[in-house]
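Input (structure):
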């Protein structure tokens, strides 16, 4: 599995709009055949800090995701709402292995 973890610091006045746009992206992403999981998390201590946890079957599936209309629309929509540029870290799953996700 290929996992992407994205930390986002949103300008507080745009937090709710960011969440709504991100939920639409997440819902559409879950329909992609290569997507296994897409979690949207909000920091308890800072409601303007969000964390996106995305799991894809293969690295290529994530690359395909980045070309979808819903992702490109999300990226353009939320960019001006971020307090700082989003920070993504890509991972390979150690545990559970591929069989643990299905």
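Output (sequence):
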């Amino acid at each position: 599995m290929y996992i992407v973890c994205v930390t986002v610091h949103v300008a507080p006045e745009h937090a709710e709009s960011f969440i709504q746009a991100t939920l639409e992206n997440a819902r559409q992403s879950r329909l992609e055949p290569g997507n296994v999981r897409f979690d949207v998390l909000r920091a308890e201590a800072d409601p303007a800090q969000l964390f996106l946890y995305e799991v894809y079957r293969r690295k290529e599936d994530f690359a395909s995701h980045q070309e979808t209309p819903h992702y490109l629309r999300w990226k353009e929509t939320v960019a001006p709402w971020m307090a700082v540029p989003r920070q993504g870290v890509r991972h390979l799953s150690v545990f559970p292995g591929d069989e643990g996700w299905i």
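Notes: The mean pLDDT is 94. The CA atoms of residues 3 and 27 lie 17 Å apart.
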